[in-house]
Amino acid sequence: MGASAVVLATPSGALTAGTTITGLNLRSSYTVNSTILAVVPAGTVVYPYLTYNVWHKIYYLVKLGWVSAKYVSTPTTVVGGREVEITEDYEPSRV
Taking all residues of the chain, what is their mean pLDDT, rounded to a whole number? Predict the structure, then answer.
């Protein structure tokens, strides 16, 4: 049986992405005391689909877990195959 991953899209159909700025522990819960499931290397593009306090929930290597949002770069959005930085005045219709 093959492995699969799920990437959720925003209502506009754009994927919200960020890049890890250091190696991050992928944890089973949103606490530093929870079990480490894997280590996400620095420079990995991740697609957080849920954020709770300072934690992002992501899929990584078919594992679902939590990483510290403090170590994920400013989110970007992939629109029409291009990556654009999200700012407060971001308007998808202008991309």
Answer: 75
